[in-house]
Write a structure and sequence with these properties.
Blueprint: H1 5-11, E1 21-23, E2 30-34, H2 57-65, E3 76-79, E4 82-83, H3 90-99, H4 103-106, E5 112-113, E6 124-125, H5 129-139, H6 149-155, E7 160-164, E8 181-185, E9 188-189, H7 192-202, H8 211-226, E10 234-238, H9 243-248, H10 254-276, E11 284-288, E12 294-299, H11 302-308, E13 313-314, E14 326-330, E15 334-339, H12 344-355, E16 360-365, E17 373-374, E18 388-392, E19 394-398, E20 404-409, E21 418-419, H13 425-428, E22 432-435, E23 443-445, E24 449-450, H14 454-462, E25 487-498, E26 501-512, E27 515-526
Parallel strand pairs: 2-11, 3-23, 4-24, 7-8, 7-10, 12-20, 13-14, 16-17
Antiparallel strand pairs: 1-2, 1-10, 3-22, 5-6, 8-9, 11-22, 12-21, 14-15, 15-18, 16-18, 19-20, 25-26, 26-27
Helix pairs in contact: 8-10
The structure holds zinc ion.
């Protein structure tokens, strides 16, 4: 899938595209870093990733041959497949990583949704500090309904450090107590004094136009300040690259490649800091991306299209919403539709309209309807879920840089740029590499795995039990003396006949034991 084999070898990239997180674990200590990775062979540390997306198992094996991943001398393991906690969006996956459960149980089902109890007129950013505070107030501190990795570790008497260049970090530990749980996110901190000290030395958190500088600042804050007194049981570093640059350009753009390299340099800094603390050989490291990436073929102006079709549909209400109005919430590769009052006739008309467009990929509905899947099929049926959610259509065409994976997407970014959050295999498959004393070395894992598996795996390594069962599983096949596991895959199909053709959509799901993974989904009107 990589456009150019030489490039592949030379850079040894995880293209990531596609965005990564790397997570680490140690048996007394655990380190997690988001979004980065991969290193080029010119990196002194020489870690390396692959282009997670859409890469088949053989591709992964090939990459493994060229990889000196996490050159700490520690064992490493590559996972061949890592589907996401449903929607291929950052905050959803951050929460899945964080809690080990899918959105139906965590409460976070999209980066942006509509909650009239928080803002009756506008959609919300789910990780916004004001929204989180209000949500916790309204729910008795259950804005995220289950405890996070950091909370569980701290409840057990351990210490944790969260350092993220993006706002997602707040959700990892939103009630952090600076004595045992440090948390800085996008230049802010859970306890105001924590960030003040760092800013005194590192200067202000760089502006949003400089994502690589933001990443370097956050990495330095982790290694030079937050780890100053020692490495805690669990650390998370979440970088904004290559996601930020891939949005502004596209997967495979020269600047996107440079962004991956910058992430690699930050990883090298982290590994060097671990060594300085004599923690390199006793720390498990997991590198994982939160989602994949695609290139926008067409930017679809859903608000205008629905208005033109006669729907009373808006992205912001100007007065108290009325039954039958539709709140449209764009999430890049997916759109959420909230039908006020759950008006059944309007919902049916909306779904029938979408099924006859040339951009709808997979449609989910709160109530069962012909030619849709219900929200529970992808584990997003919670009280904040929309009446209708649509993932855009995708294909395997290549972009202007020769990278496969094109999608239609919402009106917020132009054609030719990068985005994600569809059910495209290029969005849904990401990167996961684990290295350290608890993992087998030099193997590619053929079994499905996903972001929900990280919390159970990390907590098991640290010997911490969650009071709640998690949806993810311990990645036992990557660890010592594991029983052989089997996976199975099925494809669901839904159809609806129209005078002009038959709408047909599919969703491919894999299972390992009771853990479910969403591989991909797509649809179209067959004439
Ligand atoms: Zn993104």
């Amino acid at each position: 899938m990589m456009a150019n084999a030489n490039l592949w070898r030379a850079l040894c990239l995880f293209s990531g595209s596609r965005g990564f997180i790397r997570l680490g674990i140690n048996w007394r200590r655990c380190f997690v870093d988001a979004r980065s990775i991969c290193p080029g062979t010119d990196s002194p540390r020489g870690t390396c990733g692959g282009r997670g997306l859409g890469r088949d198992a053989a591709g992964f094996r090939q990459r493994t041959n060229h990889t000196r991943a996490l050159e700490t001398g520690a064992p490493r393991r590559h996972f061949s497949k890592s589907s996401l906690g449903l929607s291929s969006a950052t905050i959803v996956n951050g929460t899945a990583i964080n809690t080990g459960v899918y959105p139906d149980r965590s409460g976070v089902l999209a980066n942006h949704d509509y909650r009239s109890e928080i803002d009756v007129k506008r959609s919300i950013d789910v990780e916004n500090a004001r929204v989180v505070r209000k949500g916790d107030e309204l729910s008795g501190r259950k804005y995220i309904a289950l405890p996070t990795i950091a909370e569980l570790i701290r409840n057990g008497g351990g210490k944790t450090t969260i350092a993220t260049a993006k706002t997602v970090g707040l959700l990892f530990d939103r009630h952090a107590d600076p004595r045992s749980g440090q948390n800085i996110f996008a230049g802010d901190s859970a306890s105001p004094e924590a960030i003040t000290e760092i800013v005194k030395t590192l200067g202000a958190f760089p502006p949003a136009t400089q994502p690589a500088d933001r990443d370097a600042w956050t990495t330095k804050a982790l290694t030079d300040f937050l780890w100053e007194k020692g490495i805690p049981q669990f650390s998370l570093l979440w970088l904004s690259e290559p996601d930020d640059t891939e949005h502004k350009t596209a997967p495979g753009a020269p600047t996107a490649m440079a962004a991956i390299k910058s992430a690699d340099h930050n990883l090298a800094r982290v590994l060097a800091a671990l060594d300085q603390h004599q923690a390199g050989s006793t720390t498990d490291i997991v590198v994982v991306s939160d989602h994949g990436f695609s290139t926008i073929a067409r930017s679809i102006d859903i608000p205008k299209i629905l208005l033109d079709a006669g729907f009373d549909a808006v992205t912001e209400f100007t007065s108290e919403p009325k039954a039958g109005q539709i709140m449209i919430v764009g999430n890049g590769g997916a759109v959420l539709f909230y039908v006020i009052g759950h008006d059944a006739a309007v919902t049916r008309q909306l779904v029938e309209f979408l099924q006859q467009t040339d951009f709808a990929g997979v449609i989910f509905t709160r109530e069962p309807m012909d030619g849709t899947f219900t929200l529970d099929k992808v584990r997003i049926d919670n009280e904040h879920a929309p009446d209708v959610e649509m993932a855009f259509r995708w294909n395997e065409n290549k972009n202007q840089f020769g990278f496969a994976g094109m999608i239609d997407a919402d009106w917020q970014r132009a054609a030719g740029k990068g985005t994600h959050a569809t059910l495209s295999k290029f969005d849904m498959h990401n990167t996961l590499i684990a290295a350290g004393p608890d993992f087998h070395q030099g193997e590619a894992d053929e079994l499905p795995s996903g972001n929900v598996d990280l919390a159970p795996t990390i907590l098991a390594i640290l010997g911490i039990k969650s009071p709640e069962a998690m949806d993810g599983r311990l990645l036992a096949e990557a660890m010592a003396n594991a029983e052989p596991l089997k996976s199975k895959t099925e494809t669901l199909e839904a159809k609806r006949k129209f005078p002009g053709g038959t709408w047909q959509q599919t969703l491919t799901i894999s299972y390992v034991g009771s853990t479910v993974y969403f591989d991909e989904g797509n649809g179209g009107l067959i004439r």
